[in-house]
Amino acid sequence: MPRRNQLMHIQDVEDVQGDYFFRYDEFGAHTEALAHSHSWGHLNYALHGSMRMDTAQLRWVSPPQYGIWIPPGMVHSCYVRQAVVYRAVYLTPALSQSMPQQACSLRISPIVKAILADFAERDLHIPDTEADLRLARVLYDQLQATPVERGYLPAAQHPALAQVLDAMYAAPDDHRSLAEWASSVHMTERTLARHCQRELGMSLGEWRQRMRYLQAIDGLQAGHTVQQIAFDLGYATASAFIAMFQREAQMPPEQFRREFCASAL
Question: How far apart are CA 67 and CA 47, in angstroms?
């Protein structure tokens, strides 16, 4: 029988008093939130693990260094492949006016991470003291100042490019070249490269590296060894995989596992 995903609780913030609401949760592997929207904007952040967010036009997948901003009223759904520790920051429609008006990725600064850690430790959902409201305003200022990312692992609209990306994601150890992928969808190499730059904002090789990095995070979260992850992703040696991971995460995979992967959920 096909696996049934666990349903994620959808937060209701419509009657919240104040400008901010903070959510802290833990979700097991293969958990999803069905399509929905909020009148508040919100930042979705996986402290441990990675998460996928879908909107009508785009699919967003972000590692723990990034959050995904969803503006008010935007229909979205969510899926986590491996267990995650989840944080969310909800902002009123008025505060959201100063945030991006389209879904996007935002890098989580050390200040934002520290404030979220403090609030989570105290299980604080609605700041009401002057001290906590100051911290919430600092976090809001930090988010406003964060440069917008198009998406750590952007999706494609063109059917042929989408077919290539789906095939690469399903088989991360596939080493076909740009020319070979282009031939598989009856395109020239130049045309496929042009579609990549226009729709993804990056080359196919860069997209593949980011995809492998995200799948590596899932492997670390699942407890796989570095050697096994390297083999599954198509690397000839563990050292080659570690070098790629270090470039993306600015730390080796075992350190990343200790800092960003939940030990048990």
Answer: 9
Q: In the structure, how many helices (H) and strands (E) does the chain have?
A: 10, 11
**CA distances (Å), 205 to each of 46, 79, 92, 192, 255, in order?**
26, 25, 39, 12, 25
Three-state DSSP class for residue 142:
helix
Task: Report helix, strand or coil for 52.
Answer: strand
- How far is residue 65 CA from its own chain's centroid? 8
159: tokens are 């059917």
Q: At what angle do helices 238-249 and 253-260 cross, to 10 degrees?
A: 50
Element at 91 (helix H, strand E) = strand 84-91
Q: Vertex 45, ends 261 and 135: CA angle to 5°?
A: 110
> For the segment 12-35, what is each residue's pLDDT rounded down to a tens digit?
999 999 999 999 999 988 899 999
Residue 182 in 3-state DSSP? helix
Name which of 64, 65, 18, 20 is nearest 42 in CA terms. 20
To the question of pTM greater than 0.90 for the whole model, the response is no
Q: Is 87 helix (H, G, I), strand (E, B) or coil?
A: strand
pLDDT tens for 70-92 read 999 999 999 988 788 899 999 99
- CA 72 to CA 93: how far, in whole Å? 6
- Alpha-carbon span 124 to 185, nearest angstrom: 51
DSSP 8-class letter at 234 = T
Distances (CA, A) of 250 to 60, 65, 133, 245, 256: 21, 11, 33, 8, 9
